Amino acid sequence: MDIDARGPRFGAAVTTVVLAVVLISGNAWLLAWQTLAFALGAAGGVGRSPYGWVFRRAVRPRIGPPTEFEAPEPPRFAQAVGLLFAGVGLVGLTLDPDWLGLAATGAALAAAFLNAAFGYCLGCEMYLLVRRVAVPAE
Prior knowledge:
Blueprint: E1 3-4, H1 6-25, H2 28-44, H3 50-63, E2 69-70, H4 73-95, H5 98-118, H6 122-134
Antiparallel strand pairs: 1-2
Helix pairs in contact: 1-2, 1-3, 1-5, 2-4, 4-5, 4-6
């Protein structure tokens, strides 16, 4: 079943703010929260992430029914990629080296910002590329 395309973009906007605060403050606990949010989105789909829940309960009723839908697999893959970068960032911020934590968090922030500001989901595009390479055309 396809999902409301606005949901992942809302999640990316919240993620952008969270990761920006992490980079400014160096707060590993906040990065741990974002890592958990990515893990839930990767495991159950973006609708199962905390930001998906907020979108479904608080945002979507106020903005009306969706007019654009997308397949759930690319955003779910993007959550897994975000989980990888946030996990590496968390290791860097808690166990050192700090530069690794900042670089990985910055990469995740850049991807989230692209989606939030321009609707360009880098992880989704990676998913489509992997599918093209891994599954031969019929």
